[in-house]
Amino acid sequence: MNKYLLIVTTLFFSLSASAQDKVEMADLMRSNGKIYTVVAVCLTILIGLFIYVFSIDRKITKLEKEQSVK
Fold this sequence. Notes:
The protein is built from three helices and no strands. With about 70 residues, it is mainly α.
């Protein structure tokens, strides 16, 4: 129990310490409007990865069904 309490306390202090730093690059991108481009690129990559994983899952399911029929 003490071990878990120590881990939670350490995580809490590390998160609160890092949350107080102000990131100048993010402020600069936000003020220039470039942050929206970054978000759009990240979303495009994530959507592409989800589509890829979904298509691979469908192909594997199809192969498993064919394998079970034989």
